[in-house]
Structures are given as structure tokens and as C-alpha cells.
Amino acid sequence: MFEEERKRSIVQFVERHTRASVQELSQDLGVSESTVRRDLKELEEARLLKRTHGGAVSLQSVNFEAAFPDKADRFLEEKQRIARKAVEMIQEGDAILLDGGTTTLQIARALKTISNLKVITNSMIALNELKDCRNIEVSITGGMLRPDTLAFVGPMTERSLEMVRVDKAFIGTNGLDIHEGITTPNMLEAATKRKMISVAKQAVLLADHSKIGQVSFCKVADLQEIDHCILDTGAPEGFIRGLEGLDLDYTLV
After folding, report:
1. SS percent in the chain: helix, strand, coil, step 5
2. Are 90 and 166 in contact (CB under 8 A)?
3. Which DSSP category does 139 fall into?
4. For 79-101, what is each residue's pLDDT tens digit?
5. How far apart are CA 115 and CA 118, in angstroms?
6. Dihedrals φ, ψ of 15, to 5°?
7. pTM here?
8. Number of other CB atoms surrounding residue 62 within 10 Å
9. Three-state helix/strand/coil letters over 54-114
10. pLDDT for 151 beyond 90
11. How far, in Å, CA of 6 to CA of 26, rounded?
């Protein structure tokens, strides 16, 4: 197992179990305890977990939200696969909404070959990515800029969204649970996402497998309010069965 793969496995184990001891991680990964301790130190420095005496705990409390730069490269390959599948759903002449987030950023990077496209976004990062595209008409919502996510939220954002109707809205999430639905740590962020869902003919949820089973502070919507989910193949079988039980369309990539 390569170092990066081992560290990813540690983060996934800690997030899944909330906490883990050095001994548990050593046994699970088949590596020495000294290797685990060194990995935990580096993962804490990267703000992916918090070390404790004898192990580590997850940072994923209901109120925790990593800053954009800290999560941009996490599960990057999965996010890129999800984004490519999302772009396949977009047709020339569509008007689309791009939520702020690291997965929707990958959509923005993959859009540039589509002509006659209208893109509305609340993401400063997505705007910067698309600003020079002559074949795409880009609009920014405005509102209050959140430094952690580099996305606009709040009443001004919602009011600007009320002025439009789009073919598809691509929505990211912090937490995704069959029973608790779609959740995020910030109230204003949750309200903005709800408004995006309401003005779209088709709402598409994008989530890598690390979001599944996580529940954050503020509810955005029930899963039944989403038209389609795009997930990576790391999604747990139990969650997929739950989607099928809700008769919700999904794609695994």
C-alpha cells in the first residue's frame, strides 16, 4: 500500500468510526504502530483529523467545515469522475446552476467545450475558472462571501436566484444520509442550496463517498427532493440499497 493510499484509509477509518486507536489502525492496515503515529502527525498538520493520546478522532462534528484549500485535493480522482458524468448531462443551450464546492469546481473545469451555455454560480472559484470562456455566459449571484468556502450566501444570493429558472442545478453537500438527507454546517449555505434546488427543472446532487453517512448541523433537503445523485463507486452498498428503496435515480462512477 502506497503512503497516500494508507493515509486516505486512515482518514476514512477515523471518519467512519469517529475515533480510532493507533493499535486498531496498525492492525487494520497491516503496518507498524510507529508508521501509524507518523501518518497521524502529518494528517493532523493537514487538518484532516485530530490526534489524541493513543490515537485520533474525526473532525467531522456536525458543526465542522474544512476550508476550501484543505479539501480541494481530497478524493480528487473521485470528484473528477463525478464531474465528467455531470457534464455528460449538460446539453448545448442549457442554463445551469453551479453550487460552490470542490466537486462543482471540477465541473467548471470540464465545461469549456460546450457552446451556447449559461452558467450561474455563487462560487468565486468557479467564476474565476470560467471568466475567459467566450462560449459560456457566466453570471455570479453576489451576496455575502464566506471565506471558508469562497461562495456567496445569504438573502442577496437567494434574491438573485429567485430571478432565474435553470435546466439543471448541480449541488454539493457536506453530509449525505438516507434518513437525515442532505446537510451542511452553515445555515446560510443551507438556505442558498435550497433555493438552488427550487429554481431548477432538475436538481443533481454530487457527492464522493466520504460524505455518505455524515450529518451536519443544517438540513438542506430530503433526498426525495433531488432528481438524480452522482456518486463514486466507493459508496457503501447499504446506502445504495437505501436510494433504491426511495426509488431515487443515481449513477455510480
Report:
1. 40, 25, 35
2. no
3. E
4. 999 999 999 999 999 999 999 99
5. 9
6. -65, -35
7. 0.75
8. 13
9. CEEECCCCCCCCCCHHHHCCCCHHHHHHHHHHHHHCCCCCCEEEECCCHHHHHHHHHCCCC
10. yes
11. 11
